[in-house]
Prior knowledge:
The structure is a single chain. This protein is mainly alpha-helical. 69% of the residues lie in helices and 0% in strands. The longest helix is centred in the first third of the chain and has 27 residues, at 9-35. 24% of the residues are buried.
Amino acid sequence: xxxxxxxxxxxxxxxxxxxxxxxxxxxxxxxxxxxxxxxxxxxxxxxxxxxxxxxxxxxxxxxxxxxxxxxxxxxxxxxxxxxxxxxxxxxxxxxxxxxxxxxxxxxxxxxxxxxxxxxxxxxxxxxxxxxxxxxxxxxxxxxxxxxxxxxxxxxxxxxxxxxxxxxxxxxxxxxxxxxxxxxxx
Length: 185
């Protein structure tokens, strides 16, 4: 299976499972964030949840796109079996070079403010986000494409779909309505 003998088949297979699970939760968090169209009332559950989900989404993106020889990330999968990953990428309209550029941009955020607190960036944490220049559209695109790609890889390796439930975020409005009814009482 592996093109490169420094990568074991067992590690590749386990990494497909792990990154598939990470991509599922990333996709799920993103759906919840998109469903968070209700108004927060001060510092309520919805504002706290939105911030927590945004942080969780970002850390999963950083984890999946980490390009380091010591990590079993998307880039490990790519290096271990470029042909298989490229084939899955083509089916999902996933631009590997663009993903690499996004991955490098996330390093700025990770190293300066999100995972680490850089001694210079501490004076202006927002500057790291501005320097990375990642848009909401970029985030949405990479999430959707990673989810598609990991589903394709999973099917190629295991001949089954990734078992999952689809979360749409529809329940968020219902929860807000319950909150609002209780506030009116």
